[in-house]
TrEMBL record:
PANTHER family: DNA-BINDING TRANSCRIPTIONAL ACTIVATOR DEVR_DOSR. Residues 167-232 form the HTH luxR-type domain. It comes from Jannaschia ovalis. It comes from the Bacteria. InterPro entries: Sig_transdc_resp-reg_C-effctor, TF_LuxR_autoind-bd_dom, TF_LuxR_autoind-bd_dom_sf, Tscrpt_reg_LuxR_C, WH-like_DNA-bd_sf. This is LuxR family transcriptional regulator. SMART domains: HTH_LUXR. It holds the Pfam family GerE. Keywords: DNA-binding, Transcription, Transcription regulation. The keyword Transcription regulation applies.
Length: 236
């Protein structure tokens, strides 16, 4: 992992309050030099919590106008496990265009990438990177940094659940490296690419994958990845 990510993840591991985790999210935003970074969690019982860099005014407007019911990003993420590029969504309807115009007027960028995360006991979360950039520049950014941000999304979610005491009873405990390995495979990386990204040998990667597979009671690697996603042990 890049040094900038290593530093923030190490800091996240020491967070024992949501306020400290929010400060780490702000630090991550600054290190990647993007406009905004958002983690928003909804528990099964409806309780919500967020660590974000949006203005309070925009958050208040979004909640007051119930924008989540028309937001193409939220609606799309509820239906899938894979990351959502905002530019690929349908913004042609009048409510969606109004929402987009309002968001930009309140300091959001025109580009966004959101990662849905499903956790234990019905927990659902979104990890979003938002920026002001042209299409070509944004494509270069996502190619260069999306692996980092996939891992960061998982770490933020895991730490938030730990702080809130919502880790889920009976869920198998995977080590950070086991989760990293499965996250890379879930994102479509080959074993060679995953090993290179995590700066470990393919042999070491194989050890982590096999260890995770046994803990999850999975028949093979594909089953292990699917199992980990379904249990919310990794985010994608």
């Amino acid at each position: 992992m890049a040094r900038k990510l290593d530093d923030v993840l190490e800091r996240m591991g020491d967070c024992d309050s949501l306020a400290q985790l929010e400060a780490a999210v702000v630090d991550l935003r600054d290190r990647y030099d993007v406009e905004h970074l958002v983690y928003h969690c909804v528990k099964a019982g409806g309780e919500q919590w967020a660590a974000l860099t949006y203005s309070k005014r925009w958050v208040d407007i979004y909640v007051e106008r119930d924008f989540q019911t028309i937001d193409p990003v939220v609606l799309s993420c509820f239906r899938r496990f894979t990351p959502v590029d905002w530019k690929r969504l349908n913004w042609s309807g009048r409510p969606a265009r109004m929402l987009l115009a309002e968001s930009i007027a309140h300091g959001l960028g025109n580009q966004g990438y959101s990662l849905p995360i499903r956790g234990p006991a019905g927990q659902f979360a979104l990890f979003t990177v938002n920026n002001k950039a042209g299409d070509d520049s944004w494509a270069r950014f996502t190619r260069a940094h999306m692996d980092d941000l996939l891992l960061a999304a998982h770490y933020v979610n895991e730490r938030a659940l730990a702080i809130e005491g919502a880790g889920g009873e009976g869920a198998p405990s995977l080590s950070p490296r086991e989760r990293d390995a499965l996250t890379m495979l879930a994102a479509g990386r080959s074993r060679a690419q995953a090993a290179e990204r995590l700066k470990i040998s393919e042999h070491t990667l194989r050890v982590y994958i096999e260890s995770a597979r046994h803990k999850l009671g999975a028949l093979n690697t594909t089953h292990a990845v699917a199992n980990a996603l379904a249990r919310g042990l990794i985010g994608l």
